[in-house]
C-alpha cells in the first residue's frame, strides 16, 4: 500500500571571520596555512523556522527577506544571499518543514546567486509528516530560483523533495546538493529505519517482523503525485542517500497514460547519485513505480555536455496494479566520457519488469555489477497485502527496453559485464563495447563467469565483445582464436536478421596495447548464439576516436542498418607496436608526480627566510616555519592534477664572516589525479642544510642541499576501466645556488634574482598489480638542471612590506624514462622529456609581529605550456631566539637593511616591555596596597647572560606552590606563600590557613602542562576519579567525576554554581564544556568532603571551583597543536583594558578522532567541540567592579561502539550569561551579587539500539535528549575583623525543561523546580592559635517530597606550633533530586526524597619549610538517605519489562551507604629548578551501588607530579597509580569462558610527559605525551554485566598520545 514518507541531516560548518588589524589578519592566515585550514564565509541569515506560505507570520520570521502576496500566491526574495533554515521536530504532532506551501498556493522563492541551506531533523518516532525539506502536497506550484543544499534526518521517512496529491509541481532553477562533505559518511538523506519501520527494530515490526526490503525507503526526490505532478531540476543534481535516491511512486494514476501521471526531470546539468554498496541491504539509485524519471534526457535523446555519475541499482514496474504501483519508465542518458553507472536492473519478476531505456555513448561506461542485495522489494517478507500477491521475486535478469549506443565504434559506450545476471536488451541502436573478464587463457566457455548478453532486435547496431590478453599468448594464433570463439558464445541475437554487426576482440593488457588488439568477426547460429568466424582475426590497431563526440540530432528513431562487411579470412601476424598502454601511462604519471614534487622542493631554497631576516638582527639564532597549499598541472604526455600541502621548519645561527648556517625539514603531502580517473596519494620528507652569505651592499648568496624520501600510493586505470595499484618509494637529492641584490630605497626597491638547481633521483624498480598480474617498472634516473631568473619589486618600512615578483624557470636536461614488462617476455620502453619553461607571478607582504618575530603571506599564479603552478598560497613565520653568536658582529654598512637600532636591545625587551614587567596597572591613581603575606627568604633565581654580559632572570616553574615576589630590599626577596584559595570559606586565604582538605591546580601548571580541559587538570589530584566510557564521548562520557567516591559534587565558576539542580552524574556533561578556554583560567581549587552549608545542594563528595583571570593587561594569545588520533586544538584569546573598561574574547576549537588503546585495538569515534565567549568589566573604582560574561559551548560527536555493536552520535550545547557585581563596602564589609542564566541542550543516540543485554532487550533505536533552562541568583555578604570572618547570603535556583528517553513508553513533558536557601558561617578566632568555625544553611525546595532542611557544620582547629595544625569537624550535606531523576521518561520517580547525610573529618597540616608542606585528612561520610538505581521487579519477573519497548525497567530509588577513607598530599619546591608533589587517597565503601559492586571504585589512588626547569626548557612528569577495590565482580568464573576478569588491569600506572621550550618571552613550543608507556586500561566495563557475551568487553582508553603545539602571545 502507499505510505507517505519524508528527510536527513547534514552538518556544515561555515565560519566568517572579520579581521580588524593587519597583524591579526596575518597571524590567522599564517596559522591557517600552517594547519591546512580554510576560512569560509558564514550564512547571511540563520533561521529556525520554515517557509510556510503564511505571509504575515513569515514576514516576522524572515526579516531579511522581501515577502509579498496572499494565500493563493506568495513571493519570497532573499536577494542572492546564503540563507540557512534549520527545523527540528520532536513530537509526532510536529509537522514543520523548511519549505512547504499552503494548500492550493503558488510559491516562488527568489535567491539567484545565493544558497538556500535547508536542514530538517525529525526526532519523533514513526512520524509520517514533517519529514521533507521541500514539500508540495495540494495543488501547489513551487518555483525556487536558487541553489539548494538540503539534508534530512528522521525516524524512517525522510525526503529531500516530496510531492503528493494531484497537480503539484516543484521547479528548481539552480543546483541541488543533498550530500555531506564527508567521503566516509556522505549520506545527506538518512533514517534510523530504512525498511518502512517494518522488520527488526521497526515501530510497526509486528506487521512484518522479517522485512528488510527497500519498498518504503527515504529518498532525495519522492514523487507520489498524480495528474501530471512533476519535479524538475534545471541545474546540477548531487545526492547521496542511504535509501532510494530518486523515486517516482504514484500508487495509482489519473488519465490514460500511467507514464505521464507524474514526472521527474533531472536534465539541467551534471548528475551525481550515490547509494550505499552493500551485500546485506537493498538500495536503488532510481525507482520507477509509476510515471517517468528522466536523467539527462531532453527531447528524446541524451545531452553529451552533461556528466552523469551514478552508483546504485535501478528498478521499474511494468504493470498497473493500483494502489500498489503502476507502469513506470526510467530514461537515463550516459553520453560523455566522464559518465558512468555502477549497478544492475532489479525486478519484481519478469512479468512486472518495467520500461528502462539507456543511452550509452561517447565512451560512457556501465559497470554491470550489482551494488546492493538484489530482490530488493523482498515480497516474501512484505506486510500484507503488499506481499507475494502483488510482487514477484527477482529472476536474475537485467531488462533493458531500449539501448542507444554511439554512431560508430569510436563513439561507442562501454558495458563491463561483471555480474552473474543476464543482460537482456529489447532493442539496440548504435554501437556498444561489452567487456568480459576471463580466467585461465580464456579458451573455454567456463572461463567467462559473468552472465550472457541477449539482444532481441537491433537497428543499425554493432556490438564488440572484448576481453583482456591476461593469460593469452598473443603470439599463438590458435590460442587467440580459441579465446575469441569462447568469448563469442556470451552473445545471443534472437531477431534472425542482419541488423546487428558483431565482433570479438582481445584488447589492451599491461604492456600490449589497444594498438595491437586482435579483432575477429562473428555471426549467429540458428538459436541466436554468437559464433566466431574462423581465420577472421586480424590486428586492427587502436580505435580511432573522432574529434567530436556524437551530438543529438533529434529523437532516437529506428533507421535501417547498413549491411555488415563480409568476413575476409586471413592469417595476419600478431605484433605489439610502440604504443604506451593506459596502465603504463598511469604508472609513469605516478612517479612523475613524485619527480615534479621533488623538483619544486629543490627549487624552494630559503628565499622567504632571507626576506624575513631583513631588519632582524643577524646575531640571534633564527627559528622559522613555512607552509604552502597549491595546485600544479602537467598536460604534456599525460594528465596530472596535483593538490598538495608543503610544510617546512628550520633553525639557523649567525657565524663569522657574514655567514648564516642552518638546517631544516620539508614535508609534502598531496593528492593527485591522473588520466582515466586514476589517483595518487604522495608524501615527501627531506632534510636540508643551507647557508646564506651576506655579500654586502644588500647582496646575498644562498646555497641549499637536500636529501629526501619520496612515496606515492597510486591507483590508475586504462580506458577500459582496468585497475593497477602499487606504491612508488624512493630517495632524492638536490643542490641549489641562488643570488640576488636589493636596489633602490625603502619606498621602492627592486631585487633581481638568479639561481641554478640540480635535482637528482636515482634509478628505481617497482611493481604494480592488476587483476592478479604484475607490471614491472624500471624508472631510469632523473637528472634535472633547472635555471631560475626573477625580479621582485616592492616597498617596505621597519614594520611591514608589500611586494610583487615574477619568476621564470626552465628545466634544461630533465627526461623521464621507463621500462615496462608483464613478466611474460613482453617489454616496452618510454622516453618523455620534461624540459619545459614555466612562469610564476607572486604578490605578498610581510609584517613585524614584534621586534623578534616577522610573518609573511603570498599568493602565486603560474603559467606554462606543459607544467605550471595553477595556484598556491603560502605563509611563514620567523623568530629570533638567543643567545646566538657571541659577541655579535658589528655591521660596517650603516645603511644595510638587515640591521637597525633595535639590535642594541635584547630581543623581546623595549621601554614598553619594561613597564609591563613592573607593578599591575593602576587605573584609579591610588597606591596599590599589597595583600597580607607570609614572608620567607629565598636565594635569587638562577641567572643567565645576554650577549652583552648583562644578567637577566630566568623563569622557573613551581608545580606545587605559587610563590609571588612582594618586595625586595638589601638583597633579600620577600615572597608570598601560596597558593591562595577561596573555596573553603569563601574568603581569600593561603591553603594551609584554610584548614580543609584541599588541592589547587595553579595558573602556572595550566600553562606549563598545557592543560586543555577540566579532566586533564584534575587527573593527578588526590581523591578524584574519572569513569569514562573510553574516548571520543562514547555514551556521552556522562559518568563524570567522583570525589571521595561520590559523584554528587558541586562545580563552581568564580564561586557560582553551574551544576545546581542537575543531580548526580550530570557533571560529566558539564566538565567537557568547562575549562574550554584555559587562557582565561587563573586556577582550579578542589575541596574534598561535604560542603552543603557553604554551597548548598549537591556538595557531598566535594567542590570544584574554577577561578577565572582578572583583566589587568592587554594581551593576545594564539595556541595551535596537533597530535595523534586526529587530535587538534586551536585557541585564540585576546583581552585588554582601557581605563575602567576591560574585555576578554576567546575562541577554542578541539577535534579528536579514532584512537587505538594500549592493546592496539582501534576505537572509532570523532568529537568536535567549540567554545567561545566574551567577558566585559567596568571598574567603578578600585573597590567596585561589575562584569558581564557570555559563554557558549558546542560539542558534537559520533562513532562506533565496539561493545554494544553499532553507531552512536550526540551533541551537548551550553549557553550561559552571567552578571557579577563585587563591591568592597568598607574595610570590614563586602558584598557579591551574581545572576546566571544558562540553557542546556544535549542528546545521545544509538540508531541501531543498545544490543541484547540480558537477552531481554530488542535491538531498536535508542536516544536520550534533554533541554533545560537554569537560573541562579546569589547574594552574599562578607564581614572580616581581627577575630571574626563571617559570610552570609541568599541563593535562589530554578530549573525548567524536560528530558526524554526512547527507552521508555512514557511521553516527555515539561517540568520545573525551585529552591531558595540562606546561610551563615563564622570563623571565630577564640585564641591566637584556636579557631572555631560554625555554620548553618536552610533550604526550602518546591517539591512535595522535600520539606525544608537545615544543614549544619562545625570545625575546631588548633595551631599547635608555627608549623603544625590539627582540626576536626562535621559537615552535613543535602542533595535535591535532579530534574532527570524526578521527571525523565526513563527511570524517574517524582516521589523521590532528597539525599542527606554528614561527613566527619579529622585533619593535620605540616609546614616543613616555606617551600614544602604536607596535609592529611581522614573522613567518614554516612548517607542517611541517598539516591541510587535498581532494576524494577513485578509479579514473577526478577526484572520487569516495559511492554511498549521490550526493555527492562530500572528506577531511581532511595538507598543508604557509607564511605571511610583518607587523603594525603605532599608538595615541595626541592630546589630552584625541581618541584614535586605526591598524593595518596585510600577509601572503603559500603554500598550496593554499581560503582562498588562492579569494581569501578579505587581502593588506593596514588598521584604524583615532578617538574624540572633548565634555562629555557621545562620538563614535567605526572600520573597516577590505581589499585581497584575488591569486588565479587572483578574476577569470577563463567561456564562458557572459564575464569574472567572485568577490567584489563586491577592495578596500573599511567605516566604523562610534558616538554616546553621558550625561545623568547612570548613564544612557547611544547610536546605532550599522555599514557607514555602505552598502558591498556579501562574505567568502564561490560564484562561483569554480561559475561555470556565473552571476555575483553571493556571500554579502553587511548594508548600513547602525542601532541605538538605552539603558543604565541602578543
Kindly describe this structure:
- This protein has 1610 residues and is mainly β.
- It is 6% helix and 51% strand.
- The chain has a 22-stranded antiparallel barrel. Strands 8-10-14-17-20-25-28-30-32-31-29-26-23-18-15-11 form a 16-stranded parallel β-barrel. A 12-stranded antiparallel β-barrel has the order 39-40-41-42-43-44-46-49-50-53-54-55.
- The protein is globular, with a radius of gyration of 38 Å.
- The two termini are 68 Å apart.
Distance between the termini: 68 Å
> Can you tell me the overall shape?
globular
Low-confidence stretches: 1-41, 557-578, 884-978, 1034-1038, 1064-1071, 1252-1258
Mean pLDDT across all amino acids: 80
Helix content: under 10%
Structural class: mainly beta
- Determine the oligomeric state from the structure: single chain
**Rg to the nearest angstrom?**
38 Å
Output the number of helix runs: 12
- How much β-strand is present in the residues? over 45%
* DSSP summary, beta strand count: 96
- Largest sheet report: 22 strands, antiparallel, barrel
